Fold this protein.
Amino acid sequence: MKVTRKQERTIRRALDEWEQEGALSAADAQRLTGTLKRVVLDWQRLSRYAFWTALACAMIALGSLFADSELMTWIIDLISFSSFARIGLPALLAVGFYLWGFRRQRQESQWHYSTEAILFLGVLFTAIALWQLGERLDNGSGHIAPLFLAGCAVYGLVGYFGRSGLVWLFFLLSLGSWLGAETGYMSGWGAYWLGMNYPVRFIFFGGALLALCWGLRSILHRRHLYTTSKATGLMYLFIALWIMSIFGNYDIDSWYGTTRAALLPWALLFAVAAVICIYISLKTDDGMLRGFGLTFLGINLYTRYFEYFWDGMHKVLFFLLLAVSLAVIGRYAERIWHAGNPAK
């Protein structure tokens, strides 16, 4: 059995404990220990990181392309002779990458990260095709939500049938973008829609996404999309709650005259959501819920610390207390780390 150094330590510790408790004999423990083969380099993790870095570089290259006005002018002049060149060419490239990714996934399922990278290129060219379609259909109304909805349809189908968590993530991000653009258009791009500013809308959106994720968990598990869906729903919910704890349900103009007491209920709601998340994680042993709950509970506490003590406390004392609290957290994390990685 090939294992990493960390996995080997965990397994050896479990075998030692089982042997001490009498669940395993010394001979069985030695035999099982002998089956472990340490992998010097975690090639799977290296492959994942390499493809992530490659995709990040591709996005940086694309951003640099758009930032280069001379090169963009040359490209636009080159393809400006027809709408097909501007819309059809990236669309065809996107379809080609999707088909290539599906074929590779079906025939060579072991190449997971390279297949995800190919599908991601399809995502990029789909976005370019939709951008050019929007330029072509623009009538000055500013109604761009249908383009995000079209992206949702494409990314949702590709992510679901391709069992691609990466493409499914773009589906969920496009869905959130559609919600923001559609409600913004319906409200005349004002601060409120049905009495809700943008963060409040995304609190409901994140909650609805988590509810759907739970209700469809069996289907999402089969398509390997449950983890991505749950993480994205939690991210929408907690980031929106964090923003609400700072700004409340106010527009920018009225926010300047808002008292801290008026924002306190939102901060308490943020804390309650984090505590509930931690409580459920302790009941279900869900590491993701525990991580989100602890992380955003800490973010809430430090946000309130800056909010309430930045103006009224001497900066020497302010940063000294901040340093002490961070050192305590670091020491606690160090204890957990050493508890999970005992010295051999």
